[in-house]
Amino acid sequence: NRIVVLISGNGSNLQSLLDQAAAGRLNGSVVAVISNKADAYGLERARAAGVATAVLPGKDYAERERFDTDLMALIDSHQPDLLVLAGFMRILTPGFVRHYAGRMLNIHPSLLPKYQGLNTHQRAIDAGDAEHGCSVHFVTEELDGGPVILQARVPVFAEDDATTVAERVHVQEHAIYPLAVRWFCDGRLAMKDGRAWLDGTPL
Ligand code: GRF
């Protein structure tokens, strides 16, 4: 399987995918990493792993549609089976989402449907949640609203702040994202009727 990863920043989730791919545990390889930020550290991770990189700066575009059209052409030039969003901080147009429907995954740092959007760790703390976590989901036109595939939970302690909770969640992200990608590459995952399916059973 050919996997293209979109990033905007640090790329620690990208790293876990590169590591698992190198260990032969993805049943696929990352063929390209594309960032909308030229200074994203994840680009260095990709280069270190010998993976092709490209930068498409959002600030060069006045219109979201134009950016997404160019991004699609760039992605499709690598003929991906799967498109993986890993900290890609842009809202995608409906046309883009439709084009990759059922073959685009995202990871979100909350127990969806809780805390769609930004600042999830602080919001969980402010709400006094005893539990927080992360979710891998198929991407649909609803931001952070696509069908959930896999979640991991972490405890929230009284002495936690957003940084300590984020660290705890990140460890889990790095475990569950490669697992979901592997399921997809093994042909076990699908999106149908607005739900995620594993081995023919709705999740
Ligand atoms: C992660 O917390 C992920 O859940 C969110 O963006 C962050 C990306 O982190 N979508 P990294 O760039 O993979 O380190």
From TrEMBL:
Keywords from the named record: Purine biosynthesis, Transferase
InterPro entries: Formyl_transf_N, Formyl_transf_N_sf, GART, GART_AS
Location of the active site: 108
Enzyme nomenclature, EC number: 2.1.2.2
Pfam families for the chain: Formyl_trans_N (PF00551)
GO MF annotation terms: phosphoribosylglycinamide formyltransferase activity
Catalytic activity: N(1)-(5-phospho-beta-D-ribosyl)glycinamide + (6R)-10-formyltetrahydrofolate = N(2)-formyl-N(1)-(5-phospho-beta-D-ribosyl)glycinamide + (6S)-5,6,7,8-tetrahydrofolate + H(+)
Annotated N(1)-(5-phospho-beta-D-ribosyl)glycinamide binding sites: 11-13
Protein name: Phosphoribosylglycinamide formyltransferase
Site feature Raises pKa of active site His, where: 144
Pathway field: Purine metabolism; IMP biosynthesis via de novo pathway; N(2)-formyl-N(1)-(5-phospho-D-ribosyl)glycinamide from N(1)-(5-phospho-D-ribosyl)glycinamide (10-formyl THF route): step 1/1
Biological role stated in the UniProt entry: Catalyzes the transfer of a formyl group from 10-formyltetrahydrofolate to 5-phospho-ribosyl-glycinamide (GAR), producing 5-phospho-ribosyl-N-formylglycinamide (FGAR) and tetrahydrofolate.
Binding-site residues, (6R)-10-formyltetrahydrofolate: 64, 89-92, 106
Family: Belongs to the GART family.
PROSITE patterns hit by this protein: GART
Residues covered by the Formyl transferase N-terminal domain: 2-181
